[in-house]
Amino acid sequence: MKVLLADEYGFCFGVERAVEMVEDALEEGDTVRTLGPLIHNEQEMQRLGNYGVSTISEPVQIRRGETAVIRAHGVTPEVQKELEEKASKVVDATCPFVTRVQKLAARAAEQDRHVIVVGNPDHPEMIGVKGYAPEHAFVIKDETEVAGLPWLRHPLVVSQTTIKAKTFFDTAEAIKTKTDDEVQIVNTICSATRDRQDAARALAGEVDAFYIIGGRHSSNSRKLLAVCQEQCPKSFLIETEEEINAQDLVGAETVGVTAGASTPDWLIKKIVSHIEEIGERWKNELPLA
Ligand code: SF4
């Protein structure tokens, strides 16, 4: 049985960078507390927890002597300031792609322009970005919400980093009906999600079974599952190797593997080895008739 990994899988640049920054702080002997879970992966959070990393939900929970970590989604300037006042050290692991959106919003607000951010207003990344232009920014989900916007001054349109390109461009087009001024459209979508889906799609037609490693509640992992299922009915979303049912692999010659953007490499390697062991068992115990 051959195990094939998709061309793009696992940690995206921003998540990998955030984990490395936490590891650097641990190496310096810091007591590390992250504002919100650093990543949406229980196994990786447990691993970091074993080194003493804990999570707080509010800046007020941080104490002198502790290191506060801002995760890849970023936070509002007010939250950052509060952390800087309370913690002994702040590690800002905001993904540079998110920082770019924050800076664009802040600059447009300084010029007294409206900022429309296409994304989910409840998502932490969007709450953070809005904080950079509180009086000027509107976060809307899609074009259906454009009608509810006021008349706009020299609007800048940017996007949450993980939304679909079609949603962004359709909404940006609709925004042109809400102003007489020129609309500046800056596509700030990050390609990490799409790259993983494209790579999974390319592999799904070539394998007999497909394992997507990622959190059951992670939307990018569930989307990867849907993409794989289109071409490979035996596609499974798993969090650990214990969830693999060896019977599903009877007769499988090639097995595809991919992983969501929050799945660490060590977990992927462990699961790949487990699948290969199952393959060996089938070969030795159940020779093909
Ligand atoms: S998905 Fe993109 S924007 Fe978000 S953390 Fe990863 S690299 Fe950064």
Structure report:
The structure is a single chain. α4 (96-110) runs parallel beside α5 and α7 runs parallel beside α8. This protein folds into 3 domains: 2-10 and 191-285, 3-Layer(aba) Sandwich (Cobalt-precorrin-4 Transmethylase, domain 1), CATH 3.40.1010; 13-94, Rossmann fold (3-Layer(aba) Sandwich); 97-185, 4-hydroxy-3-methylbut-2-enyl diphosphate reductase, catalytic domain (Cobalt-precorrin-4 Transmethylase, domain 1, 3-Layer(aba) Sandwich). The protein has 289 residues and is an alpha/beta fold. It has a 4-stranded parallel beta sheet, with helices on both faces. Strands 3-2-4-5 form a 4-stranded parallel beta sheet, sandwiched between helices. It has a 4-stranded parallel beta sheet with strand order 7-6-8-9, sandwiched between helices. β2 (31-35), α2 (42-50) and β3 form a beta-alpha-beta unit. It is flat, with a radius of gyration of 22 Å. It contains 9 helices and 12 strands. The chain has helices at 13-27, 42-50, 77-86, 96-110, 124-130, 165-175, 192-204, 219-229, 265-285; strands spanning 2-5, 31-35, 54-56, 66-70, 89-92, 115-118, 137-140, 156-159, 184-185, 209-213, 235-238, 254-259. The model has no long low-confidence stretch (mean pLDDT 95). It binds iron/sulfur cluster (SF4). Iron/sulfur cluster is lined by residues 12-15, 72, 95, 97-98, 161-162, 190, 192, 261.
